[in-house]
Amino acid sequence: MASLRLENLSLAVQDKISLFFHEILQASGPRIHSLYLVGSVLTEDYREGASKIDSVIVFQKMDLAFLDLLAPLGRTYGQKGIAAPLVMDPGYLHSSMDVFPLEFLNFKLLHHTLYGEDLFAGLEIDRQELRYQLERELKGKLLWLHRIYVSSMGDGKVLAADIVRHFDGYPPLFRGMLHLLGQTPAAALKGDLDRLRQAAGVETAVFEDIFALKNDPARFSPEEVSQLFGRFYRATERLAEVVDGLQS
Question: What is the extent of the structural domain holding 27?
Fold first, then answer.
């Protein structure tokens, strides 16, 4: 079997991913350009048994037939916490950086090359395009927060679950903002929040409280969840204001 680069990965993660990616290489090896782990699995926030393992598969040239192979593997390995990989080719990557600068910045910042040439390390992210996307994302989240509050219909448990689910999309935004502010993101959420607070004067304690809610929802009463939502909304507004002020 082709050799995977597993150094610096925990034994638990190695055990989960090795057979999955070896099966992919056995079936499609010559067509594959590179394989990567990305995202939270490479941070201190990864929680065994709770966090998903995200990955990217880059083909020499897009091969739709590969999806027929991937689908049954997804059913098997999804139970081990391996999320459905993103699949692309180098042409898509280089032609889409202006459309998804935030996503590709996060790939650049948080990736581990398991196999093949590292395409992500040298990516150059356009600052203005990144700022545009961050502003769109944050202002879109304000609209989404309106929606989840109304749809919860006063049910604290429903609202808590929606807050946690919605918050999963925020850490990549924090890393994008730090990049615009000339800061290097940390290897954990708390470090990113500390740097964001110092660099932009944003009150970030609410995000730490949401992380606590995710880990132990029973700690929070319905009233506390409602208060947390208000703080979450105001903090998101403030993040959008900061990004809007970075136009020059």
Answer: 11-116
